[in-house]
Amino acid sequence: MAATRTFSIIKPDATRRNLTGAVTKMLEDAGLRVVASKRIQMSREQAEGFYDVHRERPFFGELVDFMISGPVVVQVLEGENAVKANRDVMGATNPADADEGTIRKTYAESIEANSVHGSDSEENAANEIKFFFNDDELVG
Ligand code: CMP
Predict the structure, then answer these.
(1) Pocket of ligand 1 (CB under 6 A)
(2) Which of 17, 32, 46, 50 matches a 20 to 30 Å C-alpha distance to 66?
(3) Which residues cross the membrane (predicted)?
(4) Using CA atoms, how far apart are residues 13 and 101, in angstroms rounded to an integer?
(5) Is residue 54 part of a domain?
(6) Is residue 62 part of a domain?
(7) Residue 108 · residue 98 · CB < 8 Å
(8) How many domains does the chain have?
(9) Mind listing the pLDDT tens digit of every residue in the chain (140 residues)?
(10) Which residues are identified as catalytic?
């Protein structure tokens, strides 16, 4: 099967606890390869734009506040069936529902401070990658 790509964010709760390497190791152990990575401080406008689909949700304001509360690491991951492989190793959105051995079960603090974001479809992955990376930043 051909390799595909997905998009990942290591969230402020994880960067704050110095877990960038630990989370990335779990992604790599799940068969994913980091083909682009940068640590950034998101602006409010960027966070609002990235999560635009959630704008009407009651948690939107808190979600944006949290995502700009510290640095994040945005990454492009490549592997077989990358979207699903990433979602499987991330675990459920709410860590209380996440399976043993997943990133969120291991590290997440709450449904908001849940350590990682991952694209939920190949179409969204392509859009989310474009939101943060130029083509010349994807070096394979
Ligand atoms: P993420 O995959 O980044 O996409 C949207 C985020 O909203 C989600 O992870 C959660 O961290 C966050 N969130 C905060 N509160 C809720 C909630 N009640 N239901 C779903 N997502 C929530």
Answers:
(1) 54, 59, 63, 93, 111-112, 114, 117
(2) 32
(3) none
(4) 19
(5) no
(6) no
(7) yes
(8) 1
(9) 689 999 999 999 999 999 999 999 999 999 999 999 999 999 999 999 999 999 999 999 999 999 999 999 999 999 999 999 999 999 999 999 999 999 999 999 999 999 999 999 999 999 999 999 999 999 88
(10) 117
